[in-house]
Every structure is written in structure tokens, then in C-alpha cells.
TrEMBL record:
InterPro entries: ACP-like_sf, PP-bd_ACP. Pfam families: PP-binding. This is Phosphopantetheine-binding protein. Residues 1-79 form the Carrier domain. It comes from the Bacteria. Gene3D superfamilies: ACP-like.
Length: 84
């Protein structure tokens, strides 16, 4: 899957599922601060990612995510690992 498609899908579900203002989503913005997610939201996030991309992100994956760019790259990496 191309990265641009990953970004589009991810941004759409962030806006729709987590009520994030699309204008607040920027590659270099802080992922956790911008979304303001609690622990239950992360569980929902895992489910939404799995249903949209067919990959599962764990706690260790989210620890590496600082920016939205990191988030997209993590999803892209998981998809690549799955299809390799």
C-alpha cells in the first residue's frame, strides 16, 4: 500500500473515530498531545487500525510513535512486514 493511501485512510479514521480536527493533523505534530487519547482510546485505535489495514499495533509500537509521521511509518512498516 502506498504511503499516501495510508495517510488518507489514517487521517479519515482519526477525524471520524477520534473526533480530531483535520487541521490539527500534521506530519510533525505530536501524535499523543494532538489526539489526547486515554488508554481505552488506544485499544479502540488498535481495533480501527486492524480493521483498516489488516495489521495489529502493540504497546511497543505506540511507544515509538512521537509524531503523525512516525504513526504513518509504523503502519507502513507493519504492512510491509506482513506482505514480505
Amino acid at each position: 500500500m502506498e504511503k499516501e493511501k495510508i495517510i488518507t485512510i489514517a487521517n479519515d479514521f482519526l477525524v471520524n473515530e477520534f473526533e480530531v480536527d483535520r487541521d490539527d493533523i500534521a506530519n510533525d505534530a505530536n501524535f499523543k498531545t494532538t489526539l489526547g487519547l486515554d488508554s481505552l482510546d488506544y485499544i479502540d485505535m488498535v481495533v480501527v487500525i486492524e480493521s483498516n489495514f489488516g495489521v495489529k499495533l502493540g504497546e511497543a509500537d505506540f511507544k515509538k510513535v512521537i509524531t503523525f509521521e512516525d504513526f504513518y511509518n509504523t503502519i507502513e512498516q507493519k504492512i510491509s512486514e506482513k506482505t514480505a
